[in-house]
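We now fix the convention by which a protein and its fold are recorded. The integers have meaning only within a learned vocabulary of local backbone shapes. A record is reproduced here so that you can trace the correspondence yourselves:
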Amino acid sequence: MPERKTVLVTGASRGIGHAIALYYAKMGWNCAITCIHRQQQLMETMLEIEDQQVDCMTFVGDAGDYKTCEKLFGRIRDTFGSVDVVINNAGIAYLGLLQDMTPDAWDRVIRTNLTSVFNCCRLAIPDMVRKKSGRIINISSVWGSRGASCEVAYSATKGGINAFTKALAKELAPSNIQVNAIACGAIDTEMNYILKNEDLIALADEIPMGRLGHAEEVAELAYHLGTETEYLTGQIIGLDGGWF
């Protein structure tokens, strides 16, 4: 029986990250899952994953802090040896005018959404290069290319992820490592629950598909990118129901 592969999913306690980790588990992958503070929800995700008869490692810590990520990858090596696919999903939103945003709030969004991607890629790449195999999938947003009023910091981080993805893909292609991003549109997760119900209805009306996306749809695409299409790299793939 072939050895199980391992996926790392950051921000896996809820929403898109939870759906991605569970999808990989259902397909027979071992999972390393992280979050910054929702430990109880992360443990519940772990139990769901283990119900699929695969192994799961949990880690609670700030993916935006490099030393914390070093501990995470040390745990992964001790548990699984190495990671085959990295899903950089950890992210937070900030809704408000830029003029009202504090420097600390700006730093937090940048660290959580963008620096975490650098940290996990920086630590995963050496093993991937050694094996001449690996996939990195970054969860981005349509706002990374369009920009969203009152979400300047969030848009900036997602735009950064898009450029990061394209550049890193060129570096790693000779080592047979593919790097792609999924630019999500409006997905039905907790992150959008800050909107009032009438705002959600109005948002759905703007989308040609007539609805918000499901986290499971992001998970399906993330699995495809992690297991198929070796020639596809450096792409920002929109998943937005035709919105943009």
About this structure: Helices lie at 15-26, 39-50, 66-80, 103-131, 143-146, 152-172, 197-206, 215-227.
